[in-house]
Design goal:
The protein is α/β, with parallel strands linked by helices. Helix content is 42%, strand content 13%. Helix 1 packs across helix 8, helix 3 runs parallel beside helix 4 and helix 5 packs parallel to helix 7. Bound molecules: S-adenosyl-L-homocysteine and iron/sulfur cluster. The site of S-adenosyl-L-homocysteine has 18 residues, from loops.
Length: 326
């Protein structure tokens, strides 16, 4: 699909055709099962100050926490017993040696408790190649690091001056070299971002030859300075669904997540994301009393997910076919 076609689909020229095509591609290439990744929000401590994010270091209005080992093990055991394919360990960016050691240790323990059966995805920000390798060798095999926007000017505008676009790209290359299944994605509806930018984001993801994607609407947070999107919430929701459908057509056999942020905009958002072409959902399995502190954006859903509407694959890793068939 060429850029101008992507732009017209993003503008809503023919949603019916777009979603029908994406559904057919998905069913043919990866099937209609949904794979579960239990999301463990390990810590909301963060060294960075991304202008959009509610747990940025500069936000004094949030109480900081770090899950202890027993809490992580309890959550992972729950995921394993429930037949989830994987867990995702996500946190604010931290680079202390103690944190690096702690994560490596947790990865090993999650492997052990599931006899190696639980897949482990991590999303822990920018790190040295040595750290990425350490966690890979400990047993993590997928990594999520969003580019946020592939447009360098937008990236630069939504981050402080020392958060460099080039370093983000370099991290993605380090992750690929290390051997991870590579996941990235963008926010949809960043102030100043246009449908042309979003079309370029899709082409960027394709050119990067990623294995997995998580992308979702930008949602304002009252304690973050970035401010209001140019798109209404309804428009961002529609755009996010179109982005998922277009990416499914552009990259037929990758894993695409239907993200929590979609659900934050519409109660049926996650189901709609799956119908549009996503094949991954990430139920939050963070201890309920701490979830309130991991607010990346306003109105983040705190409740457990209802899986009854999905054809869930139990006890399968659900690796990205794009990666395994390489
Ligand atoms: N610190 C790690 C992981 C946690 S943040 C990292 O930055 O990679 C995970 C993702 O949350 C970010 O990549 C960003 O895309 C998303 N996020 C943060 N603030 C958001 C907001 N206001 N609206 C929508 N998504 C947001
Ligand atoms: Fe930290 Fe990630 Fe939020 Fe940036 S997006 S402030 S790195 S948690």
């Amino acid at each position: 699909m060429i850029r101008s076609e992507i732009i017209s689909y993003l503008s809503g020229v023919d949603d019916e055709k777009l979603f029908a095509t994406a559904a057919a591609v998905k069913s043919h290439e990866v099937g209609n099962k949904v794979y579960l990744r239990g999301l463990i929000e390990l810590s909301n401590r963060c060294r960075k100050n991304c202008y959009y994010c509610g747990i940025r270091a500069g936000n004094a209005n949030t109480e900081r926490y770090m899950l202890d080992e027993s809490q992580v093990i309890a959550a992972a055991t729950y995921a394993y017993r429930s037949g989830y394919g994987s867990v995702v360990l996500q946190a604010g960016e931290q680079q202390s040696q103690a944190f690096i050691d702690y994560v490596a240790d947790l990865i090993g323990k999650i492997k052990a408790l599931s006899n190696g059966k639980l897949g482990i995805t991590i999303s822990l920000g920018e790190q040295t190649e040595e750290t990425y390798r350490r966690w890979f060798e400990a047993g993590a095999h997928r990594y999520l690091l969003r580019i946020e926007s592939s447009n360098e000017a937008i990236y630069t505008r939504i981050h402080p001056a020392d958060h460099l676009y080039g370093e983000r790209l370099e991290c993605l290359e380090k992750l690929r070299r290390t051997g991870y299944q590579l996941g990235t994605g963008v926010m949809i509806g960043i102030p100043g971002q246009t449908v042309e930018d979003l079309a370029d984001d899709l082409l960027f993801l394709q050119k990067m030859d990623i294995d997995m994607c998580g992308m979702g609407p930008y949602i304002e947070h009252p304690d973050a300075p970035l401010g209001a999107s140019d798109f209404t919430r309804e428009e961002r929701y529609r755009l996010a669904l179109r982005m998922i459908a277009l990416l499914r057509i552009l990259m037929p056999n990758i894993n695409i997540a239907s993200t929590t942020a979609l659900h934050a905009l519409q109660p049926q958002g996650r189901e709609a994301g799956v119908a549009a072409g996503a094949n991954i959902i990430m139920p939050n399995i963070t201890p309920a009393d701490l979830r309130v502190n991991y607010k990346l954006y306003d109105n983040k859903p705190m409740s457990d997910i209802d899986l009854s509407g999905f054809d869930v694959a139990l006890g399968e890793w659900g690796d990205s076919k794009h990666f395994t068939e390489k």
